[in-house]
């Protein structure tokens, strides 16, 4: 079940490979995520000291947060992956000009996981082509629905 999705990433980037990573979260963040107070659109993944961090993922604290906890909405969250996978990602990001973008947050076995992708930025004309294709698919669906609904009557 998806919690939050970064639909902008699919528009701005060519997605090459997808990975699933665990997240280190605090208790108030889990409660806020369950309440739907999460935004992923400005998020990106950064590599620091051989570890992955999710930056720009905004989790708004609930009003009923504990009094002794001082929630920070834009806190940097550590992502958990196997060391070999992280080394492979580091190699690709440094050598071939790839970047790591978060695609979505979802539940798996009661835990919150982040789906991240190895991606390359799209040029402006690629974005226009994506938009044209989306518009054509929408129009095609409209035409097919109209054709089916106004079919031959007996």
What do you see in this structure?
- This protein is 35% helix and 35% strand.
- With 154 residues, it is of the alpha+beta class.
- The strands form two sheets. Strands 1-8-9-2-7-5-4 form a seven-stranded antiparallel sheet. A two-stranded antiparallel ribbon has the order 3-6.
- Strand 8 and strand 9 (111-121) form a beta hairpin.
- The mean pLDDT is 81.
Task: Write a short abstract of this structure.
The chain is an alpha+beta fold and 154 residues long. It is 35% helix and 35% strand.
What is the fold's blueprint, element by element?
Blueprint: E1 2-5, H1 7-12, E2 13-23, H2 27-34, E3 38-39, E4 44-48, E5 51-55, E6 58-59, E7 77-80, H3 83-96, E8 99-108, E9 111-121, H4 124-149
Antiparallel strand pairs: 1-8, 2-7, 2-9, 3-6, 4-5, 5-7, 8-9
Keywords:
154 residues, alpha+beta, seven-stranded antiparallel beta sheet, two-stranded antiparallel sheet, 9 strands, 35% strand, globular
**Morphology:** globular
Q: Termini distance?
A: 44 Å
Q: Describe the sheet with the most strands.
A: 7 strands, antiparallel
- Helix and strand content put the structural class at alpha+beta
Secondary-structure element order, N to C: EHEHEEEEEHEEH
Uncertain segments: none
The quaternary state of the protein chains shown equals single chain
Widest sheet: strand ordering:
1-8-9-2-7-5-4
Portion in beta strands: 35-45%
Write down the overall mean pLDDT: 81
* Computed Rg: 20 Å
Number of helices: 4
**Would you report the number of β strands?**
9
Which percent range fits the helix content? Answer: 25-40%
